[in-house]
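subagent[fold] <- orchestrator: predict structure for attached chain, return tokens only, no commentary.
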Amino acid sequence: MKLIDFDGVFDEKLTKFMEDNKNKYTEKQWEDIIPKLYKKFGDTYVSKVKCTPKEYYAKMSDTELADCLRAHLREGVPAPEFLCAEIENRGAVETLLPLLSDEDTAAVSYAINLIGDDARAYEEYFAILTENRADEDVRSDVVDIIRLHADELKERVIALYEKGIAREAMLEILSRVKARDEKVFEILLTAFRSGEETPRRAGYLASYGDERALPYLMAKIEDRSIGFVEFQELKYAIEALGGEYDEPRDFSSDKDFVAVEEASARMATREKLPKS
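subagent[fold] -> orchestrator:
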């Protein structure tokens, strides 16, 4: 497929326009003008393709649109907004689904952004998590989508967790279940009490919002062996559940605490310096 760099064509036209209108607009005005020019460009005839950018993509089939997007990402040619807009306008979810299993992380990420939380993508979304596909950022995006429907997908998530599959992701999703569920609470509490990933799992209990977790959080925060980061997350979780913990603690020898204090000191010094 021959790719058309419409953004490059626009940049050429924009450069000429700016030269022709030099000193006519302020920098702030240009910030408002350029997006309007780009939008207008979508309806501008381009001789190279004998149609406008919008028409160029409107003529493509759903499959051609997906292939075009994949090719843009593979070749490193910027994908024009007109291409993505055409895909979104059609709601071509079925066509974009194959991109979710693409080896190119950029293609997977683009597909996720365009598909969103459409239920037809759930199978592939779960596959990304359970097969540990793509990179951490992509998997995090998938978790963000699935947790929006945590109640609806709860049983499936519990089943995967109990099989030991993508457990941390499943815990985060379960922490967003709104309906009170003894099984969910038991899983979140047991995971917290295991002593692993304490800061993160304290956050899951805070997100779930069941006050019965307070005694366990209070008991853990009393542990003098915990570090500054764990302490802060536990304190946040306790307060999120309506509790309170104000006992002074000394973290002066904790590396994370020292790093935070040094960063704060540097920031304060910068703010005191005279501005040029």
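orchestrator: received. Logging for downstream: The two ends are 53 Å apart (CA to CA). The mean pLDDT is 92.
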